[in-house]
Amino acid sequence: MRILFITATRLGDAVISTGLLEHMRRAAPDARITVACGPVAAGLFERMPGLERVIVMEKRRHDMHWLALWRQCAFTRWDTIIDLRGSATSLLLWARKRRIMRGGRRAGARITHVGQVLGISPPPSPVVWTNDRDDATAAAVLGEGPTIGLGPTANWSGKVWPAERYEELWKALSRERPEARLAVFYGPGETERTMAAPLLAIPGAIDAGGRFTLAQTAAMLRRCALFTGNDSGLMHLAAAAGAPTLGLFGPSRASEYAPVGRRVGWVVAPGPEGGAPIANLPVGAVLPRALDLMENGA
C-alpha cells in the first residue's frame, strides 16, 4: 500500500497533522508512506515507522514547487492521497482514494479541521517519533533533575513575549522550584538565537536550541517538567512530545492554534482575540498557570 501525505510548510501546522498520519499508519502498518512538506518541517518525520520518503517542497516562483511535486509523484500508483494543502496537484495524480482539506480560515481549532479530512471526531492528537539515540542526546544535554524549558522565539515578532518578561518568569519559577534548571529552546539561524540571547545569558542556562534535529528537540522537550513558550512550532512540538506545555498568545488565535496534548494550557493577552498585543500579557497571569501545569499536569 502506498500513501502520499501532503502537509504543511510551517512547523506548527505540520506537528498538528502528525496525529492524522499516525492514525493512518496504525490502520495500515505495512503501508509505505511518502510525506511532502516544507523544509522546516521535514525532520519531523524522519523517525516515523513506515516512512519511504520525505519530499521537501522548496517554495518557488509562480508556484512551480507544485509542478516539481507532481513530477516526483506522477509515476506512482497511490492507494491513498491525503492533501492538507488543498492543492490541485493531488487531483492530477493517480489514486484509488484521495482526501483534500480545503483552505481558508474557518471557525474552530485547526486540529478539528485536520480530523475532518477522514471524518475522525474527536481528532487524533499530534505525536512525535524519536529513537534511543535521540533520547541519549536529550539525557546528555539536559542531565539529571527537573528542567523547565522556555521558548522565547516565534516566526513573527508580534507573537514574541518580551524577553524581560521571560526573565521575570524564570526568577519567579526558580524561587518556587529552586531545584529546577533552565533550558532555552529556539530554532536554527541567527535571528532565533538573537531572540533567545537574553535567556541564554542567565547563569546556568542550558542551550537547547539551534543545532539539534527536530527528533532530538522533541526528546529533550519530553524530559521537561514544564515548557512555556510563544505560539510557535516549538510550542506544538512540546505538547506533542508530552511535556506540560503552556502557550502564550497575543495577536494569534488560541481558539485555532492552542496547544493540543494531555497536559497543556494557554494564556491569552487581555484584549480582542487575534488583536491583543502580547506585551499586554503580565507575568502575574502566566506564573500561576505554569505552576499548576507543573504540579497537576493540567
Automatic annotation (TrEMBL):
Molecular-function annotations in GO: ADP-heptose-lipopolysaccharide heptosyltransferase activity
Alphabetically ordered keywords of this record: Glycosyltransferase, Transferase
Highest taxon of the lineage: Bacteria
One GO term describing the cellular component: cytosol
Entry annotated with the keyword RNA-binding: no
KW Transferase (keyword) present: yes
GO biological process: lipopolysaccharide core region biosynthetic process
CDD domains, per database record: GT9_LPS_heptosyltransferase
Protein name: Glycosyl transferase
